[in-house]
Amino acid sequence: MVNVLELAGVTKKFGDLAAVDDLSFAVREGEVFGFLGGNGAGKTTSIRMVLDILRPTAGTISVLGRAPGRENSRDIGFLPEERGLYRQMKVIDTITYFGRLKGMSASAARSHGRELLARFGLADNEKTAVDKLSKGMAQKVQLATALVNRPRLLILDEPFSGLDPVNQGLLEHEITRAAHDGATVIFSTHVMQHAERLCDRLLLIAKGAKRFEGSQDEARATLPARLSVVARSSPAALPGVAGATAVDAPVDGWQQWDVALDPGVDPGAVLERCTISGVALRRFEPRRATLHDVFIHLVGTDADAGSVAA
Amino acid sequence: MINHILLVAAREFRQIAMTRSFWLTLLILPVALAIGPLTQRFMSKDDPDRVMLIDRTGGSTAQAIEARFDLERQRSILTDLSRYVQRYHLDAAAPQALWSQHDRWYSDADVARFVADGGVAAAQAKLTVAAPEDTPAFKPDKPDYAFVAPPPAVAQSSDATVDAALQPLLHPTAKDAKPLDYAVLIPADFGSSPLVRLWANGNAGPRFVGTLQPVLTQQLRGRYLQANGLSPAAAQTASDIAPALSISTPPPGGGARERVLIRSILPLVACYMLMMSLMLSGSWMLQGTVEERSNKLLETVLACVSPEELMYGKLVGTVGIGLSMIAVWMLCGIGAAYATQGAIADMIRPALEPLNSVGTIATMIYFFVAGYVAIAMIFLTIGAMSDSMRDAQGYLTPVLMAILIPITILIQGILSGGGGIGIEVLTWIPIYTPFAVLARLGSGLPAWEVVATGVLLAAFIAVELVLLGRLFRASLLAAGQRPNVKTMLNRMRA
Known about the structure:
The complex is a heterodimer.
Chain A: E1 3-14, E2 17-28, E3 32-36, H1 43-50, E4 58-63, E5 76-79, H2 91-101, H3 106-119, H4 135-147, E6 153-157, H5 165-180, E7 184-189, H6 192-198, E8 201-206, E9 209-215, H7 216-221, E10 226-231, E11 241-251, E12 254-261, H8 267-277, E13 281-287, H9 291-299, H10 302-305
Helix pairs in contact in A: 2-3, 2-4
Chain B: H1 2-17, H2 20-43, E1 49-55, H3 60-87, H4 108-116, H5 119-130, E2 145-148, H6 152-155, H7 162-170, E3 182-186, E4 197-200, H8 206-227, H9 232-240, H10 257-294, H11 298-302, H12 307-339, H13 343-351, H14 358-385, H15 389-415, H16 421-427, H17 433-441, H18 447-476, H19 485-493
Parallel strand pairs in B: 1-2, 1-3
Antiparallel strand pairs in B: 3-4
GO molecular function, one term (chain A): ATP hydrolysis activity
Protein name (chain A): ATP-binding cassette domain-containing protein
Keywords (chain A): ATP-binding, Nodulation, Nucleotide-binding, Transport
């Protein structure tokens, strides 16, 4: 599969501070790629380098097979974390303007802009000045400016921050739609739920350095499996069990346990050993790790990596 | 790249052109041109000042005063006539006539000769024959003073009661009555006593007093000399003795001074317009960039255009706005010159004469545009360093002061005919060069100096674009950081 974006050994320093440190990863064509990290992890700086807004101190970047530059803008849609529009401009003029900056003709940009506005329920507002729109409406217009050129690569920097639930749903739908239409989508977030729902693959960074790159399953596999067990006796002594913590008080002699397994141990093997050892069970439930668990496991605490939200 | 620059420029232009302040600014000059003549009419006094002379010496002093005021009026008419003849190239009508001798002081003898030759009526007759059809006729200004005879109540009053008799005339109660502006009482003992009484309906005008005083002095001297044994004729001759000043002035700039002044108007106006349009559009330039920063738009824009394209686009857009404003003002001026009559049109038409010279036009356009770019670049950079208009004003005020104060002094210096070292120095400081060259263009600036300062200015703009371009680029995304001088210098080096 072709790589749409590749970073190799990219470092960006501001004075003595390395905002991005020897970062390498690749995004494949057509996938939805999550760029995860806490606040200040280096996500926005990396995206700015991809867009040629900032130049790396070291390393190379390839975007759509080319070096970063404005000539790529005709194939890229970008929604920044900090959003704003020209307040005095009319909605359709704003979308057309950004379409034209991305190399579209005025008529094509206007025409697709109208389609997008109709899709976002803003068809009646195309001639409204931006400063007359509600915040939610303005967010949709901003999304339209990113999508107007039917981008091959859609880059969204913290796209869900500040959106109300309705607009979050709209954005998720648009990301899915863009991917379905063949676009590659990269979005940065520190909200793990969004990444869980949308990403094919993801990258975890902290302090500007890569901590993980791969699929969600591969991410979860980095964590030892956990079990929720209700048993008469402690499973802590069983082979393959790293530890067992009692949860709540026992009821009629039955105790609930939170069981941590040794790395690589299959929960089925533990169940078999319970049977052989005569550990009476009422419940044996393998627990799937969340991306939040993975993040905390790989990146560490808030103090190390900025804050993340489950 | 060009496409991006033009797109940014067009958006910038449209955004400014949509503001109310732009249209208000644009209409300032046309409105001024339209209401100028009206204001002039309302401001000027239609009626002459009414003067009453109460001469109790027999009437000779009053006659002398009236004769002097008439002589001054004829001198003023002769001077205006000379300017009219010069403006419309009518010297050929009577090359030897006094009014064909321009830029000179007309002595009392000259004025007497003018009157003896038939005065303005005779001159008009000659000029009508020689003038082309579309030449407006010469109209002498209305007289400033009208002499009224004392009514019996005043004439028959004593020196003690004359004040009471004059009060109803100075301050009439009837609404439609015209008040007296001046009353002069020359007492019967004038000569043995120097006392003359003057009543003024308000402040006594210096011109009135200045004309009256020498006549009274002359009369007083004559009477004194007669009282000391001189015959009346000898006393009159002695009191009339005055130096006959022969005044010679070199022809300024190879032509008449007034002509040079009028030809200087357009470059001076261009200088003023450059200053005005920069002051007015400076805040628009700031607003565009500040809005992009404060509205967090920059990242979206910079994903599509480079900082250089953004900067040049803004520069082109704002220069376009400035030039459009000037173009509209110029068109209004030309329209006013050719569509109207009167003093403004008379002044504008010859002032537009420099537009017949391609060299002058090219020089004016070059220095105007270069001046605009040089200063607009500073404003744009201020915008790029500011998170809000308040921030921007903090930088803008001292910068504007540093630019405008020397320019105002420069223009005043040039208008007052000075050509000192200060003006020469400012001409060679690139940021002031456009203003100095434009302001000096009409009064004669050597060609080599125009070329040399033009080259220096171009080099300055090139360096400015590089250094301020770096500062602009580095400051764009540095939101929330108000740079100090050291930071600015570092950004320029980066």
